[in-house]
Structures are given as structure tokens and as C-alpha cells.
């Protein structure tokens, strides 16, 4: 018994083999943890793919609701098609979707799409984690309205050469993006207000100035309405410039060919009376000018629920020409005009094209928000800026 007790005491204090036992236990636990981590990563990836597919399908459905006028069954089919294409192609059918549900609100052009996924666990099942329940929802609203857009474009002498070519290309890109949506039920229209030393009012010069002879150059009017959008009946405009841009203003139109022709016909020369360009860009979309423009170019009322009024102000240099000293220089007048446009809920985008630092504060001032100001340093950046503006004016948005 003494020998047995001694041996027992010796065994109890023997640590040989303990490390192996502990290591085995830790290895088992590490295996379980790694298994859970791997399955959790699978779940996270599936959740990400599910959300992206729902977003894509919801956006497509909201767009179809707004532009194609599909009925509820057709919208459900469109949502299913877009979702399955986006989801199955990335999951290979290994995580089947349950309860794909579409809810539509035609009053706000909103599509809500939700789905559930039950992802079976693999290694995590050893830790009694049998599955991962994943649920996601996406809410998309097509809040782009019909667009009335004026483009105030600098065609002064400093724009000659490649810069003018880049501007024509950028404005053409924007025109293509916006007016192509008219094929799907939208009613977008665009007008042009090229400017340099003055504005060429074309056939509208006589009614604007009260003078039917001479160049169709138009300058600001020396009246209290100089910085408002009142039509010529409230005060005629000046004819104090001896030079006009070759391209005349173009009232609102949905004819892509007409706009492209006007853009291609622009020639760069003269100085930079930017405030005149801004003023005529405003007149083009102002309902106060409805009696002046042709019936097909008549602007709708301010704050029309179905229409967004917007203006692009583009320049490559400092505003440096004005004609009525009592009204302030071109910069001062431009600021007041921009204030007036914003007061009428006109969204203003401003674009500097290789512009000097001295003019950027004015463009930032006139822009409706910092996101509506662009500082393009080359032709590619200019085209990108105009495309972004076009997409913003006609875009869908996710609300969640």
C-alpha cells in the first residue's frame, strides 16, 4: 500500500503529456473558431451581393415605373429579372433567395424590394450554428422630373482652338444623355445662351431692344429690372456692344439635331460679359418670357411639380465686360442674377474650364451647392463634369 500510494502521488505530480493534451484541446477550439469565421465570411459576402442585387433591381424598377409606365405585373417581372441576373450570376445559385417582395408607390415613384436568404452553415455547424438568416431591403426613388435646362456657354476669344472643341463635345454629351430619355416618356428641353462681348439675341433682338436694325447684339438694360427676369415689356435692353457671338441664343427645344447644330456653329472670339450670358440663360427658362418665345419653347411655371429648372454657367476666364456703370461690374451683376435664379428654385451648376483662380469664388458663389461646382482642368474633365450634371438631373437615387 505504501508503494501504491507513492506511485499515486508521483502520478499526480507528473506533468509529462499535459502540453499535448492542452494543445489538442486548443487546436480543436481553433478549428471551431476558424470554421465559424469562414462561414461568417460567406454570410457577409452573400449579404453584400444580396444588397447590391436588390439596389440594382430597385433602381431599374423605379426607372421603368417613371419612364415606361409599366403596370404592377410588368414591374414585378422587371424586378425579378434584374435581381436574378445580378444575384445568381455572383452566387451560382448556392444561396437561394426566399420571399423576394416588391412594393411600389406610384405617387412618389418609389420601388421597395426586399428578400431573405437562408445560408446553410458548413464548419460552423460543429458549433451548433446551423444556418445564417440574411434579410435586406432596398428603396429606390426616381425623383428626376422633366428638365428645363439652359446652358450659358463662354465663347470668348480665350476659348478658341481645342478648348472650344472640348466644350462642344461636353455639351453634346450632356444633350445626348438628357434628351435620349425623351424616348421613354420624359419631356426634357434644353436651351443655349452663348456669350462673349455680348449676347446675340438673333430674331429676339428687335423685340428686346426696340431696334430692328444693326447687329443683334444685346447688352443689359439701364433700368430697375436689370437684374430680374422681367420680359422686354418691363424695359428694353441696350445695344451698346459692337460685337456679337456668331451663335445666337436658342430657346428651349427637345430637338437634339437643332441643339447640336447650334453647338457646332459656335465660334470663339471677343471678351467675357458673363453676366449677360447668365441673364439670358435665366430668360430662356423663365415663365415671365413665355410671351416672347415660340409656343414649343414656352417655359412652365416656377415650382411646377413635374419640372426641374436648371442652368449651367460655364466660363474659362474672369468676367470683364459690362455696359451700364450704375449697375456694377460684370461680377457684381452676375452675383445678383444668381441670387435671383436661386430664389426661384433654379438649380445652378457652374463649371470652370482651366479657369484662373480669381474667377473660381464667383462660380462657387453662383453654384446651388458645393456639389454643383466643377473645376475642370482638361477636356476629359470637362466632358466628365457635363456628364455628371446630366446624370444628376435625370438620376435615380437610393433612399436607404
Briefly characterize the structure.
By secondary structure, the chain is α/β, with parallel strands linked by helices.
> What topology, given as strand order, has the largest sheet?
8-5-4-9-10-11
Q: What is the annotated CATH architecture of the largest domain?
A: 3-Layer(aba) Sandwich
What is the CATH topology descriptor of the largest domain? Rossmann fold
Which sheet architecture does the biggest sheet show? 6 strands, mixed
Portion in beta strands? 15-25%
Task: Tell me the name of the CATH homologous superfamily of the largest domain.
Answer: von Willebrand factor, type A domain
**Shape from CA axes?**
elongated
**Span between termini:** 79 Å
Structural class comes to alpha/beta
Radius of gyration: 32 Å
Number of helices: 10
What's the count of strands? Answer: 12
The succession of helices and strands, N to C, reads: HHHEEEEHEEHEEHHEHEHEHE
Overall number of structural domains: 2
- CATH class type of the largest domain: Alpha Beta
- Which blocks of ≥5 consecutive residues have pLDDT under 50? none
- What is the share of helical residues? 40-55%
Average pLDDT score: 87
